[in-house]
Every structure is written in C-alpha cells, then in structure tokens.
Amino acid sequence: MHAHGTEVPTVLVFGDSLSAGFGIDVDQSWAALLQTRLQDQGYEHRVVNASISGDTTESGAARIGQALKTFSPSLIILELGGNDGLRGIPPVRMKGNLEKIVNSSKDSGAAVVLLGIRIPPNYGQRYIEDFDSTYREVADELDVPWIEFFMDGVALNEELMQADGIHPNAQAQPILLENAWPIISEALAN
Fold first, then answer.
1. 161 in Cβ contact with 172 (< 8 Å)
2. pLDDT at 190
3. pLDDT at 63
4. Which of the following is catalytic: 4, 25, 164, 185?
5. Is residue 17 flagged as an active site residue?
6. Is residue 72 part of a domain?
7. Does a structural domain hold residue 53?
8. pLDDT at site 5
9. Domain extent at residue 97
10. Known catalytic membership, residue 167
11. Would you state the pLDDT for residue 1?
C-alpha cells in the first residue's frame, strides 16, 4: 500500500508453461524480467505470475474469475493455447475459451494483451491455419493488442530451447520479453 491509500497496479501474467518458467529458475523467467524492466522504467506495477504449466484455454477460462477476484489486475497478459494445439483441441473451442477470458477480464476493468502461439508443422496444414487465425480473430473481434508469435526467434533455435524441444530455456527469456514488450508497453501507456 502507498501512503496515499492506492494500491500498486497489478500486471497479471496468465499463461502456461511458456510463462510459468517451466524447467528454469523462476527468477529467470520472462515474467520476472518484466518486473525488473517495469521498475527500471519507473512503473509502479507489480507483476503476478498466475501461469500454470500444462494449462489449456479451457482451464484458463475456468480459473480467470478467481484470478480476477484475487489480484484485481489492471493489465492481463494472456498467453494460452499452446497446450490446446498440442492436444488437438478444435480451434473453435479454443477461440470461445479465449473470448471468455478476454471478456471476463475486460468486464473487471482490466486491459488485455494477447500473446499468439504457433504449433509445430506436423499437426497438418488445415489445423495449423485454423489454430493460427484464432488469435487474430480474437484480437480483431474483441479489440485486443496482440503479437502473432510469442516464441518468434526462439522456437526453431535449439540453443534457446530445453532438451524437450517445447520449452524455452533461460537464455530465451529476454527474447520472449522483447517479443511481448511492444504491446505490453502500449497497454501500460493507455
């Protein structure tokens, strides 16, 4: 609490293992680096990482209400969908879940930015196209700033990935932050 009685605004990172710091020291995760950057740039915001490894958009939609109640965020960084893709969940279902999360967040007064994910090419062209376009449609229809590929510059670089080939390593985290920063800073400025 500040002396003048207002609480520090909260940035809620709401994602899966890509944001939870899976397989690395959580202090090295991009969400932790975001906290440092915000402090360095004079923002008062505190970053709360409510990401859960393995989370799908469906489990995200189920827990967003509680997260909004608990943390009252002013900004939500939504990074979900990768696990939907890996499980072959129909993109139309994923879209509905993302919309539910965005709408609940906006109804609570929070701004939302959306981090798009891409899935490996072995899922078939049609599925991949439907999956990729889900993020664009949600962003366009609900007027949410977004980036197309959160893992850009990381996903295909073995030196930046953990041995499983799915999760970024510690060296990748600053790149992930750079990828997301333009829309985060834009949202904070508004």
1. yes
2. 81
3. 98
4. 164
5. yes
6. yes
7. yes
8. 52
9. 10-189
10. yes
11. 43
Query: Per the residue annotation, which of 19, 55, 105, 167 is the catalytic one?
Result: 167
* Strand ranges, E, within the chain: 10-15, 46-49, 75-79, 111-115, 146-147
Domain containing 40 — which CATH number? 3.40.50.1110
3-state secondary structure 30-82: HHHHHHHHHHHCCCCCEEEECCCCCCCHHHHHHHHHHHHHHHCCCEEEEECCH
End-to-end CA distance of the chain: 23
Alpha carbon separation from 38 to 31, 43, 50, 97 (Å, rounded): 11, 5, 18, 29
pLDDT at position 2 is 46
- Low-confidence residues in the chain, pLDDT < 70: 1-6
How many residues in the chain? 190
Q: What is the phi/psi pair of residue 76, to 5°? A: -115, 130
16, 17, 51, 84: the catalytic one is 17
User: Closest by alpha carbon to 76, among 67, 86, 89, 66?
Assistant: 67
Query: In the chain, how many domains are there?
Result: 1
With respect to residue 75, please indicate whether it lies within any of the assigned structural domains. yes
- Per-residue pLDDT of 33-72, as tens digits, reads 999 999 999 999 999 999 999 999 999 999 999 999 999 9
Residue 176 tokens, joined: 């992930």
Determine, yes or no, domain membership for 66: yes
Residue whose token pair is 């879209």: 95
**pTM beyond 0.90, yes or no:** yes
